[in-house]
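Quick review question:
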């Protein structure tokens, strides 16, 4: 008995205890942590990938339905011989033309007429009477009766149908000649059949291949024996044969507004002059809501890159919210690790276990990869077809239109180039008109515009849209490292603009990281430290005219306001006056003079007082050598009076 089931099988068996919708079932699995049980969840082998879940994870009623389905599949009834013969009769009858079917109905009516008359007379007499009425011979009627007797009444109609074989004979053809013709004819160069036939006849003449039928006979054989899809595949390629197979009509009404989106890039057939002066064809990355068909975010730049995809996604998130699922093609821009890093099914670049989580991964957006250039997988490619006409061929682009093919250039080719700023404004206007145009024939819009269908879904009671926080919106901006908070204000300079906020005054001289939108440098820039901590959002300080009095007055007002706030902050911090602080200081204490541990003895047993002051080093040296000097005539002495002269003696073992 089968024990492992995929999401499709589980959803088919769900009936209340589990969601039957694939998206809702995926959310149920994530919310209940099924993937945290590796013993009962395993990767699905085979094409498409995904996961399989053990039957023990499922509710009891779902388990019962899955087991019942497997049991019925294993115990399929064997068709009896009678049933097989009846099925074959009716299959052949359905393949007959209406004219042949009518013959069978006429024969059945004759047989039923004979049986009705045979109820009151012999069968021979009934056959003779009916033969006279219908003009058929009695032997023919007896053959029809015999054939009808071999089948039950429910199968008599197909059994009585004539079995015309028609012409079944085939003209003989040397197999080597036929193989040569088929190989030459069924190739990408798409040669003419008659030319291939002539070459084959020439080769048959040389090689002795025989017989060789006519060209018409062999062409009918190729068309009869080789399927049309195989012929188209050989001569027109894989894309052409895909168009033979009927397309899948995918119902987008299962989603709600902003539940699922898809995105793609498009290169416009318009010459544009970029900011650096170069001329080229711009690229647009657009995001579309799958439910309504509304284009909910777009950006235009020089080339398709992961930065452009991220900025377009940021516009969508800021305006409408975070989607739950996204359908993207596996291109280099969309499969960048900065967008989808950490997703196990990102089949591009090297997937490492330690790679950083992409922005879509961090926001919990489930990404589904699609086939490039496949409009059924990404409906936004259908929108691009309409927008090309509305944007590239608009009167505003006259002279800048390049044509959609190298051999379809207009007469005024490359006669002008539109400034990129004007072209971005033109694209935004046409996308707004595209969303607002009424009369849409999709199943969801039903004659309304994409805007109306989107708004109606948002207003529905069951619609829930995740809104991004301010911190999440800052994640989508580009990062520039190595920006310095300049002296003396802490302002930051970037791309010729100045940015400042009050917290930057505390970061003067520090290296910082800013995040920015390259197409909108006037908006506030989030500022971070080098280790990723958020500091503030710095406003752009726009340059003003030297004689702009109003701007000067506004700047002075903001500066006064800043000074007042700083003074208020200082007053809040200083809760004491300076006199109160002085009163809190303790009174100083005078230190006690230390007593010497060694006392020097002098001559005569009297202590010799030290002189009050010595004016120079020489006088001090003389006093140490010869003692105090005698008093002079004036009765004053250099030293103290009453002291005797001590003769100079060299102490043993010491200095003089």
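Suggested answer, residue by residue:
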């Amino acid at each position: 008995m089968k024990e492992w089931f995929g999401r499709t099988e589980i959803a088919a068996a769900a009936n209340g205890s589990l969601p039957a919708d694939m998206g809702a079932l995926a959310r149920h699995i994530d919310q209940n942590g099924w993937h945290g049980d590796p013993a009962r969840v395993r990767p699905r082998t085979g094409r498409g990938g995904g996961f399989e879940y053990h039957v023990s994870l499922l509710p009891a009623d779902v388990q019962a339905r899955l087991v019942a389905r497997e049991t019925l599949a294993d115990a399929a009834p064997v068709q009896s011989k009678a049933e097989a013969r009846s099925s074959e009769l009716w299959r052949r009858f359905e393949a007959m033309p209406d004219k042949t079917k009518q013959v069978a109905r006429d024969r059945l009516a004759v047989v039923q007429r004979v049986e009705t008359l045979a109820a009151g007379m012999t069968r021979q007499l009934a056959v003779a009477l009916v033969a006279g009425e219908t003009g058929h011979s009695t032997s023919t009627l007896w053959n029809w009766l015999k054939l009808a007797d071999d089948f039950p009444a429910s199968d008599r109609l197909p059994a009585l149908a004539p079995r015309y074989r028609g012409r079944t004979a085939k003209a003989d053809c040397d197999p080597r000649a036929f193989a040569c013709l088929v190989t030459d004819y069924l190739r990408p160069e798409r040669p003419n059949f008659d030319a291939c036939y002539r070459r084959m006849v020439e080769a048959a003449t040389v090689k002795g291949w025989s017989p060789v039928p006519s060209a018409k006979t062999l062409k009918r054989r190729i068309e009869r024996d080789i399927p049309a899809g195989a012929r188209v595949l050989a001569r027109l390629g894989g894309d052409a044969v895909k168009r033979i197979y009927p397309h899948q009509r995918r119902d987008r009404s299962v989603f709600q507004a902003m539940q699922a989106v898809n995105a793609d890039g498009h290169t416009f057939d318009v010459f544009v002059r970029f900011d650096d002066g170069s001329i080229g064809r711009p690229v647009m990355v657009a995001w579309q809501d799958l439910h309504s068909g509304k284009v909910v975010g777009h950006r235009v730049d020089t080339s398709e890159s992961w930065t452009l995809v991220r900025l377009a996604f940021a516009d969508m998130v800021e305006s409408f919210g975070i989607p739950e699922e996204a359908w993207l093609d596996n291109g280099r821009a969309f499969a960048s690790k900065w967008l989808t890093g950490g997703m196990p099914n990102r089949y591009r670049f090297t997937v490492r276990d330690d790679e950083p989580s992409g922005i879509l991964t961090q926001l919990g957006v489930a990404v589904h990869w699609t086939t490039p250039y496949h409009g059924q997988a990404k409906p936004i490619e259908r929108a691009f077809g309409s927008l090309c006409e509305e944007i590239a061929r608009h009167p505003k682009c006259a002279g800048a239109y390049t044509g959609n093919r190298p051999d379809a250039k207009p007469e005024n080719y490359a006669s002008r180039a539109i400034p990129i700023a004007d072209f971005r404004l033109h694209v935004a206007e046409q996308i707004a008109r595209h969303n607002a145009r009424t009369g849409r024939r999709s199943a969801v819009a039903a004659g309304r515009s994409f805007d109306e269908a989107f708004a109606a879904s948002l207003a529905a009671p069951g619609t829930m849209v995740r809104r991004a926080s301010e911190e999440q919106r800052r994640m989508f901006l580009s990062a520039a490292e190595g920006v310095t908070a300049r002296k003396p204000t802490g302002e930051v300079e970037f791309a010729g603009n100045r940015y400042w906020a009050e917290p930057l005054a505390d970061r003067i001289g520090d290296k910082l990281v800013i995040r920015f939108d390259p197409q909108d440098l006037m908006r506030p820039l989030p500022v971070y430290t080098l280790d990723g901590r958020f500091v503030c959002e710095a406003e752009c300080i726009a340059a003003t005219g030297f004689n702009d009095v109003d701007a000067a007055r506004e700047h002075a007002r903001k500066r006064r306001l800043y000074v007042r706030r700083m003074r208020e902050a200082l007053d809040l911090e200083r809760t004491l006056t300076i006199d109160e602080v002085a009163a809190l200081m303790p009174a100083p204490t005078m230190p006690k003079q230390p007593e010497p541990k060694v006392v020097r003895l002098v001559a005569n047993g009297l202590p010799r007082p030290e002189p009050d002051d010595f004016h120079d080093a020489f006088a001090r040296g003389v006093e140490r050598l010869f003692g105090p000097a005698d008093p002079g005539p004036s009765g004053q002495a250099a030293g103290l009076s009453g002291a005797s002269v001590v003769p100079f003696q060299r102490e043993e073992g010491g200095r003089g």
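Why it works: The chain is about 40% helix and 10% strand. Residues 252-459 form a domain with the Nucleotidyltransferase; domain 5 fold (CATH 3.30.420.10).
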